[in-house]
């Protein structure tokens, strides 16, 4: 049994799962992943003709009312958001023994994301002696996070198993869902694709919707979500999982804006990140504004990020670390070191 710590309840859950899946050769329990206050998670494989068809995560709630309510809530939210490629997908597997073994308020099956938490990526980069991440990688990660916010604001609710890039939907009101727990441990790194937005930077996906809730307005929800991704972007810039929020004022499009992103701006005494793209800095600062009237729309942010990605290729930055192959290999090396 692969347990990172000895815990009687987790060991019993693991043994129970082994028993449940022993009756069906299409399922193989692989390992314990981790545990939280309300339950534990395990890695599982689904096989067809004795070959692994896909890797999965099974989340088991503790047997108490709060944990059961949370997993039902999370399943309901994930079903609403289903189809958003930057949000973890719930998975329905034919013949899943859990349907018979446990009440449906005790378990949830989701896609497995192979490359770990973003927090471990940050720690791995720092421990490997990496000074900073390339701007083009930061732009791509920023795009993933903003798309995830779009996925919450305009739920797809797909039932056909397909996924798509998230974006504002013209003519459809923005939703009021706030995740309420976006941090480096709830952003997980997926894989690369052969082309497009994830060709040299792996996809980021948002997980763990147990604390998600509807806010009083779409603006409040957007601000909460953007505050969190702004904080994550500062962590990626600093390569520290905890960056102080420093209040400061900056000028943007003729407006004086108060933000909590002062830590990533130069001061009279110091320029901590001289390599950082100025426009990227400003857009991150907009995610951390104080005044609700200055909270950017997701359409504005998405457009700005995509325009910068489209116009700033490796040649634009004129340094080797901004080239596609370098970034792809850098990410692979960091992920390997963090495992």
Low-confidence stretches: 1-5
When the domains are counted, the total is 2
How do the strands line up in the largest sheet?
A: 1-2-3-4
- Do you know the CATH architecture of the largest domain? Orthogonal Bundle
CATH superfamily of the largest domain, by name, is: Transferase(Phosphotransferase) domain 1
Give me the secondary-structure category. Answer: alpha+beta
Helix content: 25-40%
Order of helices and strands: HEEEHHEHHEEEEHEEHHHH
**Strand fraction:** 15-25%
Largest sheet features: 4 strands, antiparallel
Using DSSP, what is the number of strands? Answer: 10
Number of helices: 10
Query: Cα distance, first to last residue?
Result: 18 Å
Q: Indicate the overall shape.
A: globular
* Average of per-residue pLDDT values: 95
What is the CATH first-level class name of the largest domain? Mainly Alpha
Radius of gyration computed on alpha carbons: 21 Å
* CATH level-3 fold name of the largest domain: Transferase(Phosphotransferase), domain 1
Characteristics:
4-stranded antiparallel sheet; two-stranded antiparallel sheet; globular; alpha+beta; disordered N terminus; Phosphorylase Kinase, domain 1; 10 strands; 339 residues; 17% strand; Transferase(Phosphotransferase), domain 1
